[in-house]
Amino acid sequence: MHNLIFPTDLTDPELDPYVRYNEVQLFHSMEPNPGLFIAESPKVIARALQAGYLPASILMEEKALDRDLADLDHEMAIGPAGGLGQIPIYVVSSELLSQLSGYNLLRGALAAMYRIRRFDLSHFLTTMPTDHPRIAVLESVVNPTNVGAIFRSAAALGIDGVVVTTDSADPFYRRASRVAMGTVFQVPWTYVDAKVWQSEGISLLHQLGYQTAAMALRHNTVSINDPQLDKVDKLAIILGSEGPGLKEKTIAQSDFTIKIPMAAGVDSLNVAAASALAFWELGNRKTE
């Protein structure tokens, strides 16, 4: 049985995460503890639950209730987590939902879920595989769509972990996790303070045995398929912001500067597209 609740208006404080909080407010809603995030669509919600994230509640549209419950129950049935139990499921009419900002973009059920506390960079890196680890670092990647796409590629193409600077888009923003199809809950990741990253991030990677490959166009770049990259034991692939790219200091401190060979007249790709090619070439993808 499901714990279905049918609000008649949107003033219930339990609906605050859906109605009155923006992404930043959700992030800070439980300080000093980690806050909340919104997972959107049954598949994304199920992947979060299967990864051990706990829900505060779920919101569904009344006219889609049977469909969304069936989809979510199906996703839960094929995963390792238990059922929905007594999680409050708020069921609201289309008329009430239309009052929500972005209602027309809704992709099915929503769930308000509790964040977990992230490891610091040093501790996080010690959790990586000991054999040929491959990680990605997102430096100032501010577009949630790009962050979500990068995580989806990371999950598919054998990247063992992702480090996200705090001036990047949050991987748990609704748009990021939706674009990632929930893979933000499958790939291990952590934040690093942007200032800490700039002052000592690459130095710390070096101390822990990682060599770094900055994706940037420079005169001394090596091709992404250069055999010496595959021989590196521990490799961190660093991706920069959509406009300016990587910071000069990051490039200067990196062991390699790598490029993707292009046809004449084109000098670069969108960061999400570039990440997919880099992960395909450099990741630990498994084939059957």
UniProtKB/TrEMBL annotation:
Keyword Transferase: yes
Entry's Gene Ontology BP terms: methylation; RNA processing
Keyword Transferase: yes
MF terms (GO), sorted A to Z: RNA binding; RNA methyltransferase activity
InterPro entries: Alpha/beta_knot_MTases, Ribosomal_eL30-like_sf, rRNA_Methyltransferase, SpoU_MeTrfase, tRNA_m1G_MTases_N
Top-level taxon of origin: Bacteria
Domain tRNA/rRNA methyltransferase SpoU type, chain residue ranges per copy: 135-279
Assigned keywords, A-Z: Methyltransferase, Transferase
Protein name: RNA methyltransferase
